[in-house]
Amino acid sequence: MSAPTSPAPADGGPAPQYVYGVTRSGVSLPDGVPGVDDRPVSAVEGGGCAALVSDLPTGRPLGERADLVAHQRVLNALVEAGTVVLPFRFGAALADRDAVEKELLTGNADRFTSILDGLDGRVELRLKASYVQETVLREIMDAEPEIAELSRRLRDVPADAADAVYYDRIRLGELIAQAMQRRRDVDGQILLEAAAPAAEAVAPKTPVREEDVLDASFLVRADRRAEFDKAVEELGRTHSGRIRIRSIGPLPPYDFVPEA
């Protein structure tokens, strides 16, 4: 979820507000969790909701690593405390606290309430899985004779003749990448289908690295968290030595709220 950004006011005017996210009115903020620039976080209420804000730093643009860490730290603290929160993307700001109340909260109260209702009692968990490359490469060599033969021939080429087999090496890399993709398509679906029954919603992501098998977020009811964790543990045992699997979270539910 994102909100409009606003420039800093003239000197002496109300402080512009950095917005972390929205929760329900009456929220208890975690103690000792500073915001961007180590500024205190407070709540602005309106329309039955509360925006989590701090004064926006002046004299410099946002975007330092410390700013990103602070943004995530505030949201993580709420999630860890069991508070339902609609997280905003990094960089959301409004002109002052009055604008937060009237423009952001009052004008969107029904929509925010509906989203919070859908997230209440649920957590986002992210499942990441990657191949143990040595194991999967052995599988590929055992299962695909063309790749194994080309690999063997290239190993026997003397170093002073490496240029002559340049395109063969490219071809070998392409064949291995294709074989990895075929396995990823199958294994990724197996992992996804095994974890999904314990979740209410799933948001798969495109794997970034060649060895990545699955990267997906799951929206899980708190009372089914143990069931989800058990499914992940079983996957880890079943695929031990071949696929490394880890569960991350609970996280702010970015993947299960509208973007605008």
TrEMBL record:
Subcellular location: Gas vesicle
Keyword Zinc applies: no
InterPro entries named in the record: GvpL/GvpF (IPR009430)
A family per Pfam: GvpL_GvpF
Transmembrane segments: none
Main localisation: other
Keywords per UniProt: Gas vesicle
GO biological process, one term: gas vesicle organization
GO CC terms of this entry: gas vesicle
Family stated for the protein in its record: Belongs to the gas vesicle GvpF/GvpL family.
Name this polypeptide is given: GvpL/GvpF family gas vesicle protein
Species: Actinomadura chibensis
Lineage: Bacteria, Bacillati, Actinomycetota, Actinomycetes, Streptosporangiales
